[in-house]
Each structure stands twice: as structure tokens, then as C-alpha cells.
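Extended Data, panel c. Modelled sequence:
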Amino acid sequence: MKNIFEKRVNILPYEYPSLLAYKNAIRHSYWIHDEFNFTTDIDDYRTKISHEEREVIKRTMLAIAQIEVNVKTFWADLYKRMPITEIGDVGMTFAECHGEGTEILTPKGWVNFKDIDTNTEVIQYDLETNTMTSVLPSNVINEPYKGKMYRIENQTYSALLTPNHNIYYKTRSGNIIKRAIKDINAFSSDMKLPFSGKFVNEGVDELSLEDKINIRNYDWVDLSDKSEKWCNSFINELTKVGVFKLDSENQNGDNVIKYQTISKLYADKLQVIGIFAGYAVDITNDKGVYTVSFVNTNTFSSITDKPTIEDYDGNIYCVTVPTGCIVTRYNDKVLISGNSEVRHKDAYAQLLRILGLENEFQTVIEIPAIKNRISYLSKYLDGTRSKENKMYTKSVLLFSLFIEHVSLFSQFLIMMSFNKEKNLFKGISNVVEATSKEEEIHGNFGSELINIIKEENPEWFDEEFEQLIVSACHKAYAAECGILDWIFEHGELSFLSKDTIKHFIQNRFNNSLNRIGMKPVFEVDFTEIEKTLWFDVEILSTKEGDFFYKKSVDYNKKSKSITEDDLF
């Protein structure tokens, strides 16, 4: 008898093949916020709406961004409780990760990704300032994955990446672009990837006398309290005393310093010192002799190569850091690239920045309505820690049906109504469309999981269990109404009433319960629902077969990537 909670050792045959459709659906719906153009949205917000409407937009955006921050990696963690290949394949489609054997740079040097946890400081890279700092990751991914991986392999770079992993590069015109590796058919000389930066650390700046005495022995070097200036002084001193050799210029005219050793430990430590000093550092191995090359050049370097695709079955790894970029090493070659992102959060964080709402977001959790929603959301997430599979199922059900299918959709409706009724906020509407499609996929996936669990464990879904769900539904609805009251505190919209939105929310709750065979709990006025049917038609599509392969097209056909300089 099948049991979705029991680990299956064999990969094939699949026991739940229908779940794999969601893997492809998620991949087809993939987007990043850099693809959207928000130039006109800024003007719309500042000049084309009333004060009351501006307040509605502001509060709606704050409410969306807040919940995206709290959701984080729910789906990627499913495999820990349901160790089935199909679950892992779908869950890890959300991740942007590295393959086994990849190391990440920390203040103490290179550490294998498998040994990282949220208490391990790592080095993050800031693309805007070309600086590196140490930080504790907010999230760590270490999960099994079976699927396609993309390999970069040449004299300069080496990496093994999941399809959605983001690569950053600078164009000839100086614009910084972010693209998923699966969308890069080939690298060109116009695509310059970052490889180093200024290490910002409040540490020791100058070499001490003891440092200079012991400088030929690298075992003692502890980089956790050293600054960029110290690292440069270290390299200069070793060059001065002849340990490091100043080689001839390379083909680009850059000065190259070289050092040879038979100690891999020394080579690794010197590579880190060079990176912290701002050098591009390469390690080559010739029959056990390691050559460490320090190149003093621009912080971005060209790459001309074509990524290759291969099958993979093993663990994948990544972390999440505030700047969105980390420094990794694979086969002794360094790559600075994206971290594991929560793309929805990043998109709405970008919108808050360009609308000038960052400061208000810092205090939004003090709003009673927001606090209330955080409270019920936290209870759903806390339930996933239960050792009881039945109670864990309850949390998956509540999260799938009420968070993914309902919680954000009243705000989505509000934002889209400005575009429909007033032809405003086209860029934001495209973000909402892209987000809502993914939320719907997530919710559908969760619903199918619940139906599988229900089929395998029908005794769990007794009257008491259903009453728990109904009670939670009413509490969630009350919390969502509280959000609406706060959003419309200074007045409702002339083209979309609060009462209409409440019926819209009730209908989504009923539809969510219907997906798992439960009766509706709200009496809905369908004359009010008819006023919002355009939302389902325009955003969600009623044809599920088409929906699985439908991606938002407006944003990538009609927009371009822009920088903050362009915006202001």
C-alpha cells in the first residue's frame, strides 16, 4: 500500500506521476523582477491618482510584501516529511542551487556547502558597491534533487547549477543583468561576470612584526579578523621578499603574481587572501604542484563558453543572504552568482523601493491587522514541525488552501483593478499576474497532495478534523477582512468596493475547500462575484491544461530591464 510519508528508495516507477506536471508548470512560469519595467508606475503613483487611492496602493503593496517575507521556503522543505522523488522534484524546482562538491566562501576560508547551517557566517557580495561582507544566511538549502543541471567549465569558471540559478553579468554598456542559467544559451565576450570585490571588515589593517616574521608559514593566518588592507599588505610583503614572483603581464595587460606549493591547504588559504585583497585568483594543479595566480584586474571578467546540460541525482545546496549574491568555488574555480532567492519577496521589495515605501515597511508589523495575519500564518507554519503526520497534513492543507489560494488574492484584485479601470500600474500588474499564476500552481499542488493523503488516510479526515479546518477558515477570513479594513481606512475605491472584495474572498475560500471535497462555509452573493470574473479570466485562466503552460507574456514582450539610475 502506498504511503506518501514513507521514504521510497527506488526512483522508478513513480507512484505519484501526476505531481510531476507541477514541476514543469513551475519551470514554465519562472520569472525574475528584473524583467519588468516600472517606469510609468512611478509616474502613475506620484501624479495620476488621488490621495485616497495612493493610500490604498501603499497599504496593498505593504500587505503583499509582508506576507512574502514570512512564507519563505515552505515548498522546498516538503521532501523532509514526504521523502518521495516526485515531491523532491517539485519542491526543489523552487530552488536556485549548486551541486555536490561546491564550496562557499566564509570569513575563515572555503567550506563545503554540506557543512553550512544558519549559524555559519558566509561571504556575501554586493553588486552595486563591488564589496564583500560576512553575514549569517537567513536560509540554508541542503536537499536531494533529481533532474537537469547546467555545467560551466572553462579555464576561468567552473560550476554545477540548477536550471533556475541566477547568473549576474555586466554588459558592454555597464548595465548589470541577472538571468537564470537555463536562459543563457552561450556566454559571449560582452558578458562580464564578477569575480572579486573590496572586502569590508572591521579587522586588522597592518602586518605586525610577528606577522612578518611568520609570513612564510601560512598555518597561523586567521582571516576572520583581517581587512582588505591587511590582505594586500600580506601579498605585497611576500612579493617584496621574493616568495611570490611577479610574472609577466597576461594577454589583457594585467600584472600576474604567482606562487607554487605542494600544499593544497596553503594554496586554498592564499586564494582566499587574494580574493579578499581584490584579486582574481586561480589555482592550477600539475602533478601535485599547485600554482596560485593573482591577477590584478577589473572586478568583472569575460567568459566565452556554452553551458552544458546533464542529468543529476544527488543533493543540492545554497543559502539566502541580503545582497542576493554569494562567492562559491567548484573545482578550485571561483564564481560569484545569485543565492537561493525568494523571488516574490524580491519583486515586491523592489516595488517598495521604487515607490519610496521602504521606511514604512520597517514598521508595518506593528499594524494590528498585519500582526493578526502574521499570527495565523505563523500558526500554520509552526504546525509543520509537528511529529504527527496528521497534524502536519493540517498545516499543509491550511497553507495550501488559505495562504496560497486566498490570502494575497484580495490585494492582487485591488492592484489589477487599477490597470483594468484606469489603465494605470501596468508594470505592477504584470508582477501581480506572474505572482498569481505561481501562487495558483502552488495551491493546486498542495490540494493534490491533500487529496492523495486523504485517499491513503481517510480516517484522518473525520468530523473533528473538518471542524478544525472550518474554524481555521473563519479565523483566516476575519484576518483578511481586518487587512481590508486597514487598506480602505481612508476611503474605498469608486470602481471596486470593499463589500465586493469580501465576497471575492469568500468565494475563493469556498473554492479552496471544494478542491479537497469539503462543503462551502460561506454564502456568496454571485451578483458581486460577477463583478470580479474578469480577474479569473485575465489572470488565472479557467482551462487547467492551458494554465500549466501559460506564462505571463506582457512583461517580457513589452518591457526592458532598467536600472535605478533610469528610474530617477
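The mean pLDDT is 83. This feature is highlighted in the accompanying rendering.
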